[in-house]
Amino acid sequence: MSIVLYRIDDRLIHGQVVVGWGQPLHVGFIVVVDDAVHASEWEQDLYRMGVPPHIEVVFASTAEAARRLPEWEADARTGILVAASIDALAALSSNSHRVTRVNVGGIHHQPGRSERLRYVYLSDAEAAKLRELAAQGVEVTAQDVPTARPVPLQEFA
Amino acid sequence: MSEPLRGVIVSHAAVAQALKAAVAAITGVEDALVPVSNEGCDSGALTARVTAAIAEQPAVLFVDLPGGSCLTSSIRLAKGKTNVAVVTGVNLAMLLDFVFHRDLPPLEAARRAAEAGSKAIRTPAA
Fold first, then answer.
1. Pairing with B106, which of A13, A136, A138, B58 sits 20 to 30 Å away (CA)?
2. What is the pTM of this model?
3. Which residues of B touch A118 (CB under 8 A)?
């Protein structure tokens, strides 16, 4: 197997990732790409609390993720890679040229963002970044849980 | 304790609201618990909701799952504070016990509630 889900979710590891996607995909490892969490042991322990012991959690900086992506893709287990921001996943995509699909799983309300879907709020600049990612050949859809319809980018950005 | 403890239930969807309503229906106690849902929140927004629910009172945070956004926000908020404690795996039994023991220090109340909640989980013969 390999990394089967590249997800943008500002909650990083939470129920939808571990249970919603993790159970049906039989996930063996989760890669969290986030510079701030990578720099904090305390934050890492906090995120590990929500993950059953049979699932390995790897915390990587954005730069490290681009270097280690081939290693994770060659892993025999099924993996999920999650980043909190569009910027982090866009950087990973352009630095690695290995990301072919991106799942927008949760970007919540902040000042300057407007509601695009119940679980996706974007500023105009963020919507443009997603369109740019798509223009580079990456399939971008929004889908919070596996049983939901994958929403094409054109419908929310 | 000058001020009785406040219980803040932090949950996915409407679990917290339903638990508060059930406690009120069983005990008649209406003012001990504050429900907080993580619906539509990133971790910053959820932390703000929980902060508002605590309202600077001594509190126990009752979280639904032992992981995920409800827990991470609650633990970030309780970090370094002696007047806020966290319990995970909230159930009705622990809340029913808690509302009658709000004069305890937060950590002691949290441990007592966790024990009451654990004792309620059984597999009785049908």
1. A13
2. 0.89
3. 40
| pLDDT, tens digit, 9 for 90 and up, residues A37-94 | 999 999 999 999 989 999 999 999 999 999 999 999 999 999 999 999 999 999 999 9
Low-confidence ranges of chain B (pLDDT < 50): 1
Which CATH fold topology does B6-119 show?
Answer: Rossmann fold (3.40.50)
For residue B57, what are its two tokens? 């009172």
Per the CB < 8 A criterion, the answer to whether B110 and B87 are in contact is yes
- ipTM of the complex, rounded to two decimals: 0.79
Domain map (residue ranges) of chain B: 6-119
Mutate to test the interface with B, among A8, A49, A113, A117 (most CBs of B within 10 A): A49
Q: Which pLDDT does position B126 carry in this prediction? A: 82
Identity of the residue numbered B34: V
Q: Which residues of B touch A119 (CB under 8 A)?
A: 40
Query: Domains of chain A (ranges plus CATH)?
Result: 3-155 (3.40.35.10)
